[in-house]
Design brief:
The protein is an alpha+beta fold and 226 residues long. It has 5 helices and 11 strands; from the N terminus they run E-E-E-E-H-H-E-E-E-E-E-E-H-H-H-E.
Length: 226
């Protein structure tokens, strides 16, 4: 069972819903349904104003065209990239915008993470922490600045106890690997408050946690002999 929580900080004010974090459940739930989670990182001055709209556009395109999780992620990010490129071509240099992004698509126990720099995420399993950031040249530059890009994909088979954290790079920089591992080892409902204690000194940031919890035990039937 998945547990999902999020928070963001905007101009020093904390909130559950902010422009940097997006949660887009499948509008057609059922077998084969997939959900999308993302954290957007503004890069150039003025990019903050585009983050909420960009997140909504990525979620909309992903759910409209997703024969596969990776295909849906790629098409959604390509559409967002094209929109930003079009804006930048018509804008003065000082008005150009760009963003990094971490997008997580989950279907059942299968999950794919697509990242374009700057972007930060971490995967935690049984005491081991894996930092996740774009590591291929085509994902090293933000959306909106250059013609060509390709997101860095990571695949996961989720298991009970796993944690996947998407968070702003400036928040990631405030935590050592040891501190982050200890935070992700906490019960899911305690992890985000612990992260927020680190984030509250930052003017802007966001975090989204996906945790795999044990399946609830079925209730025994009443009135039956053991």
């Amino acid at each position: 069972m998945l547990w999902v929580g999020q928070f963001g900080v905007v101009e020093g004010e904390a909130g559950e819903r902010t422009p940097w974090v997006g949660v887009f459940p499948d509008p057609s739930p059922g077998e084969g349904a997939s959900d999308l989670y993302l954290v957007v990182e503004p890069v150039l001055p003025g990019s903050e104003e585009f983050c909420a709209e960009l997140a909504e556009a990525i979620g909309r395109v992903f759910h409209r065209r997703k024969a596969s999780l990776t295909g849906g992620l790629l098409r959604a990010l390509q559409a967002a990239h094209a929109d930003l490129l079009q804006w930048n071509r018509k804008s003065l240099k000082e008005h150009r915008v760009a963003t990094g992004v971490s997008c997580l698509a989950v279907r059942g126990q299968e999950a794919y993470l697509a990242q374009v720099a700057p972007a930060s995420a971490s995967f935690y399993r049984q005491g081991i922490l894996w930092p996740l950031a774009p590591a291929i040249p085509d994902a090293a530059e933000p959306l909106g600045l250059y013609e060509e890009f390709w997101p860095h994909f990571s695949r996961f088979e989720l298991a009970e106890g796993d944690r996947l954290l998407l968070f702003s790079p400036n928040l990631a920089e405030t935590l050592s690997p040891q501190e982050l591992a200890a935070t992700l080892a906490l019960p899911a409902e305690e992890t985000l408050p612990a992260l927020y204690r680190q984030a509250r000194a930052l003017p802007n940031c966001g975090a989204l946690l996906v945790a795999v919890l044990p399946q609830p035990s079925p209730h025994p039937c009443s009135g039956q002999a053991p």
